[in-house]
Amino acid sequence: MISYATLGSNNRQAAKTFYDAVLQPLGMKASYADDDFVGYGPDAPDAKTQLWICKPYNGLDASAGNGSMLALEASTRTQVDAAHAAALAQGGRSEGAPGLREAYGPNFYAAYFRDLDGNKLALVCRAEA
């Protein structure tokens, strides 16, 4: 249903360093980068770019949406743990440590963080332990 997502950043170079580290445990890499945009997709031949990071098109400063959150799917709980740890190591802020959120389902394992621009993201694994 969703083709791709875009997050605004006020410092595309810092955002690339941040997301390179955070998305690597999820098997994603920068598939495109220039001075204005960086795009991430699965580390596979001919994979589609699924996440774009860029300065807002209107030229105004990027800002985090109140109530907005992007959830990234992980195949394993270990990937959730590693990506959350990478986010914090790169200067992100935790919004919820990795763990089961049984209110959302018996195997809903998630962690939450904010990136360098304040965007909130979730890392989610629904696989059994």
TrEMBL record:
Name of the molecule in the record: VOC family protein
Domain (VOC): residue spans on this chain: 1-126
PANTHER family: BLL2941 PROTEIN (PTHR35006:SF1), GLYOXALASE FAMILY PROTEIN (AFU_ORTHOLOGUE AFUA_5G14830) (PTHR35006)
Entries under CDD domains matching the protein: VOC_like
InterPro entries attached to this UniProt entry: Glyas_Bleomycin-R_OHBP_Dase, Glyas_Fos-R_dOase_dom, VOC_core
